[in-house]
Amino acid sequence: MSDNRGSGNGGSGRDDHEGFDTGDEFDETDLGDDNANPLADLSPFAQGDEGTNLDDDSDFELEDTEYQDDADRVYEELLARIGEAAPQPRLEATRRAVELLGDPQRTFPIVHVTGTNGKTSTSRITESILRAYGLRTGLMTSPHLRRVNERIVIDGQPISNRALAANWADIRPFLDMVDAELIAGSEEPLTFFEALTVLAFASFADAPIDVAVIEVGMGGEWDSTNVGDGQVAVFTPIALDHTQRLGSTVAEIARTKSGIIKPLANVVSAIQTGDALAELERAVELTESTFATEGTGFELLGSSVAVGGQVISVRGLAGTYRDLFLPMFGDHQGHNAALAIVAVESFLGAGSQALVGDVLAEGLATATSPGRLQIIGTEPTVIVDAAHNPHGAAALAAAIKTYFTFDEVVVVLGVLQDKDARGIIAALAPVAARFHATQSQSERAVAYDELAELVLEVTHEDATHQFATFERAMQDAREWAAKAPRRAVIVTGSVTLVGEAIDLAAAEKWKQ
């Protein structure tokens, strides 16, 4: 086992905020009328503000620079609250805050997405299809890779610094009121994610939007996003994760996640284990909702590798859609796309009317999922993936074998303390020629030398290398990969590490 310690690592603004899985028959009502928008007059800045393009790094870095300090202060105030790694199992606090604001979450319909893996990608694909239909969309996902703005997306663009700061200024007095009430009742004040959820709902109402796609933070039943009522409830595959918070069995976790199902909702689900499926079926029956599951109600008919992604065919609820290009790698992304298609079918017409072919094709072709099998460098190839549990790591390993033709891969790995590091390593070992065990700047990161010991236990000495700093781990990995034409670097294990890799690629201007 090689030991490349380098210098120690410092703190980071991302600390304690990767607690969530870094993972879609209504009239298309126009919510543009200020009379239908209780927050329409609160912000002098946010009306019609479309932010910037998350996938255009140059624009994202340069936009709205005069408001950068204001946006930074918003994030600092959020970070001062209880972190996402320690969510409060309650809804009353968030419900009280949105009530004081006039319930902004009720000014638009919601597609609510939960599960263990694939939530973010499914949410982003769902939002992209809805936007292709001409709807003005809101999208809330977590965690972020580089900037908190990424979590609140309006009409395909991360919220601008200006709108972020203006909406925060609008809601902060109401958050202070709720904090005071909670403290008076011997409860913790609003947490980071509770406050962020209120901010997202207020920002969406202020935009305004036609529909919101909301990714659950953790669980479902008591997650703060559950103050909104999802007309469509979407379930990605449910597996063991966050067991200290959600339960020690898949059935317990599924029971908590099924709490997002509201009366008379349309529920769509990926393939689930028997225990998880039974919990969802129980909740569907109690709420008198409709239920469509992958494999019976709909299915991914096929997927073939294509340049830049894959071509998929899907049998939906109301139609069959063939030969659609999806610019994402991995069979799991094909299943996520099928789930998203059915979520949109359910939203637009309860699955009774097939989607328009060219509109659907546009929505899929323009969908992105940063940090999920994303190529951030070439010569050598560097791929980042936010897999942070064994299920996600297994999907990553399968995609590497199916969608790429690498002879050898080095995995640069960093894992947080509440994750199954051994399970992640075991899932990746079949495709990894070597591991570079390191750590992100998060205070919750497993120490690089401890992680290296786990790698050694699962693999062997020649495959195990340890680095005290991520920068040194990446430098060595890229140098190793550059020595042969069909080698690659995979950065994975935590969202914080992926975010640092994207920052490093931008700073060093890796070829793409």
TrEMBL record:
Domain Mur ligase central: 113-343
Top-rank taxon: Bacteria
Residue ranges of every copy of the Mur ligase C-terminal domain listed in the record: 371-494
Keywords from the UniProt entry: ATP-binding, Ligase, Magnesium, Metal-binding, Nucleotide-binding
Chain spans, region Disordered: 1-60
Listed EC numbers: 6.3.2.17
Family of the protein in this entry: Belongs to the folylpolyglutamate synthase family.
Protein name (database record): tetrahydrofolate synthase
Matching Gene3D superfamilies: Mur ligase, C-terminal domain (3.90.190.20), Mur-like, catalytic domain (3.40.1190.10)
Matches recorded under PANTHER family: DIHYDROFOLATE SYNTHETASE-RELATED, FOLYLPOLYGLUTAMATE SYNTHASE-RELATED
GO CC aspect terms: cytoplasm
Catalysed reaction equations from the record: (6S)-5,6,7,8-tetrahydrofolyl-(gamma-L-Glu)(n) + L-glutamate + ATP = (6S)-5,6,7,8-tetrahydrofolyl-(gamma-L-Glu)(n+1) + ADP + phosphate + H(+)
Gene Ontology MF term list: ATP binding; dihydrofolate synthase activity; metal ion binding; tetrahydrofolylpolyglutamate synthase activity
Alphabetized InterPro entries for the sequence: Folylpolyglutamate_synth, Folylpolyglutamate_synth_CS, Mur-like_cat_sf, Mur_ligase_C, Mur_ligase_C_dom_sf, Mur_ligase_cen
Organism: Salinibacterium xinjiangense
EC top class, as a word: ligase
Compositional bias (Acidic residues): 21-33
UniProt keyword annotation of Ribonucleoprotein present: no
